[in-house]
């Protein structure tokens, strides 16, 4: 049996759901709290905790997938990055009332990692070409 949902994988959402589930188990079940605490002392939760702490200390967040449908006005955000040095590509401006602004998932200074599933980190011209084709 397989189950298909319309949602994409999202680490933050999965962790939030796990916490809600553990809280419900703690308050409504007969499972001893010590056993629930043991679940949280796993390599997975330790790794997630370390990654989140590192990302926060470096002022980074988890990569996330943002899906936008291009309109006649385009995607309504600008990017910047040094073409010659192949430096990271960042969103420099989210155009008010455009599709990206209305979506709300993009922020100014977010780094662009891929376009339509194609990795473009540090490849400015490739990113521009793919954004135009999107």
Automatic annotation (TrEMBL):
PDZ domain ranges (all copies): 65-134
InterPro entries referenced in this protein's UniProt entry, alphabetically: L27_dom_sf (IPR036892), MAM_complex_regulator (IPR051109), PDZ (IPR001478), PDZ_sf (IPR036034)
Name of the molecule in the record: PDZ domain-containing protein
Organism field: Rotaria socialis
Source lineage: Eukaryota, Metazoa, Spiralia, Gnathifera, Rotifera
């Amino acid at each position: 049996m397989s189950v298909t949902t319309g949602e994409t994988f999202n680490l933050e959402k999965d962790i939030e759901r796990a916490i809600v589930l553990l809280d419900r188990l703690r308050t409504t079940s007969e499972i001893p709290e010590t056993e629930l605490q043991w679940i949280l002392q796993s390599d997975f939760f330790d790794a997630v905790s370390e990654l989140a702490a590192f990302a926060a200390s470096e002022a980074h967040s988890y990569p996330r997938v943002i899906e936008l449908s291009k309109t006649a006005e385009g995607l309504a955000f600008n990017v910047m990055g040094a073409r010659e040095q192949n430096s990271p590509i960042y969103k420099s401006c989210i155009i008010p009332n455009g599709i990206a602004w209305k979506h709300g998932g993009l922020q100014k200074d977010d780094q662009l990692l891929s376009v339509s599933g194609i990795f473009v980190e540090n490849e400015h011209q490739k990113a521009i070409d793919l954004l135009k084709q999107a």
